[in-house]
Amino acid sequence: VFAQEKHRPQLHFTPPSMWMNDPNGMFYADGTYHLYYQYHPESTVWGPMHWGHARSKDLMHWEHQPIALYPDSLGLIFSGSAVIDHQNTSGLGSKGIAPVVAIYTSHNMAWEKAGRIDRENQSIAYSLDGGQTFSKFAGNPVIKNPGIADFRDPNVTWFAPGKKWIMVLATQDRETFYSSPDLKNWTKESEFGAKLGAHGGVWECPDLFPMQVDGKTKWVLIVNLNPGAANGGSGAQYFVGDFDGHQFIPQDEETRWVDYGRDNYAGVTFHETGDKRIFMGWMSNWDYATVVPTATWRSANTLPRDLKLHNLNGKYVLASTPIAAVSNYITGTQTIKSNKVVKSASALQRLSGKLPVQDFSITLSNNKGEQVIIGYEAASNRYFVDRDAAGDHSFSAKFAGKAYAPRLAKTDTIDFTLITDVASAEFFADGGLSALTTIYFPSETLNNFKITTAKGLPFTLENLKPSM
Ligand code: FRU
What we know:
- Pfam families: Glyco_hydro_32C, Glyco_hydro_32N.
- By secondary structure, the protein is mainly β.
- The chain is 1% helix and 49% strand.
- The termini are close together.
């Protein structure tokens, strides 16, 4: 029934109705992925935040669940993470059941209105039924505000070498690390980033996790930022470095972005996925999220993406690609052999190809002349996405325009994948070293493809079926 709604993505997660922002508390257990999200069940704009909940077996098809966390006397339920406390360090487990513990920010709206700086505090809630229903911990908050207005979005992980929990918390213009033996008592360890990275706005929604590369363990620190992203508004920067349970030391002073597009914010990774790292972001931007022209709901998430670290001239950089399960939704394949317009049967497609490093563009359009153009400019060595003429952008002066992503790869061929889904395009080049995500609101679906390239044909165009 949702599939017929105008602008409703069919391959991407969207809430059943009403307002959604950040993905929260994502984890995997017993064959099921859990996704929670910032949710206002009474309106299509932001308001008193709950944690909505959905479950999936393959990260593509999601089943909506009852709301997992409701606001309480400590405040609204802002963003955070969830862990499985396998060893019951918290003592919140029962009868051999390891609790799922959600760690989130309690945001006190009354205190905010009263001008109180200490309005954001960290709380926990636990579940004994695998993340379906939660009880709030009686001793909340577990971290009290020390006098920092923006003090939120805790992301917790078990640090095995030190046998302790580590929390990374966004604290205005930096990250603060805390540790705990039991998820209830927290000690400040260190701070990171006041003088590094992009600071055009407030640091929000961090994530810290280890990855294996070249036989070593490296730590990735994702730091979402709003505003001040690579192409304006909100976006996700990251750092790669070392973490010893106390301090994060970055490999260098570069600012790098998980995705250079305008519409990938507050992204973090799933917990409990072993050696895999799966990232999902909110496919919007605070520059216009509350005014985009959808009627009964607002916002979708990005497709789930596999993260990998690549060694690029001695520096480690993130590459992201859509998870392999996308291929299970293919219904047909055609080959694009010329620079003429090709019609696709569906508004859900995956286009892929390989071509020499040279200017090229892919124009995705409808019969009304609305279009999104994605391509590469050799002179500036950048990929771009242009949604200037993509349909309605009357709702915000900040919406139209072009976003650019630098090409990092040095190889002499470009491989790319582009996935489109009714109201979004996700472009990945060079094995995901460059990513650009964009949303748009055409009056009719964009399913004409035209590829402008001197060399590089043919391309493969696959139709996909809805996953939702
Ligand atoms: C990021 C954010 C978080 C906060 C949440 C509130 O989009 O501002 O910092 O926890 O949204 O909904």
